[in-house]
Amino acid sequence: MNINPGAAEFPHRQIASQLRERIRRGDWQPGERLPSIPAMAEMFGVAKQTVQRTVDQLRVEGILITKPGSGTYVRGTRRRLNRLSRGRYGAHRGYHADLAARYRQQLTGVGREAAPPEVADAFGVRDGTEMLVRRHVVRTDDATVELGASWFRVTDATGTSLERMEAFGRPLYQEAEEVLGRRYTSATDTISARQPSREEAEILQIRPDTPVLHLLHVAFDETRKPIEVAQATWPGPMTTLTEEYRIPAPAPDPDPDPGLTLA
Hints:
With 263 residues, this protein is an alpha+beta fold. The protein is built from 8 helices and 10 strands. The strands form 3 sheets. Strands 4-5-6-9-8-7 form a 6-stranded antiparallel sheet. A two-stranded antiparallel sheet has the order 1-2. Strands 3-10 form a two-stranded parallel sheet. It starts with 10 loop residues before the first helix and ends in a 21-residue tail after the last strand.
């Protein structure tokens, strides 16, 4: 491995390109530890600060993860999100078996909290209105890949199982439909990119300057009244969004007016 001092590209970017290629072809597997920074500096014939810049860049991209006191490791595979929140309902209003096999959801808290502005706006209430929230994380074998929260009106959820700190063994929306007596009939997804909070960065094991993708999912009943507002936050560089859809066939040209005479 070497760099070209005369190239227009900075040395740390040249090194990053070579490390990406080695990881892509499998020289280092997910979870495998990379050589130390002094060792890589010797390999490339550069200063340790140059290698540190490379590692910092690849951490922001989500390719590497640094464990304090242990070293730098190749991060796990990217998470592919198919059709955004539609996957929670599934073709037959149920879990997707392939997602359940790869990702584990863990309930982390249930209680009443002041609604943040985006949740309050979705429900059409004032900022800070007290609401019931159920928080969870989603993990793979080696990392946390999602922070999530589902919000309900206190007046709807009081006295129901939604207030209990327990998993239901079925999708949350199915439990909500049963105990609230309302059916989910439509939903909107709004996705944005932003910087993480300190807590989000710590839980997702990303640098504070690594962007996250944030989803606001609003589910409605048949009267277009919100039943649930859900939030999901994912580490941006490790997450891909895929939407598959049909493209309509061209419409046939309309028949010319039979009463029109062409000169």
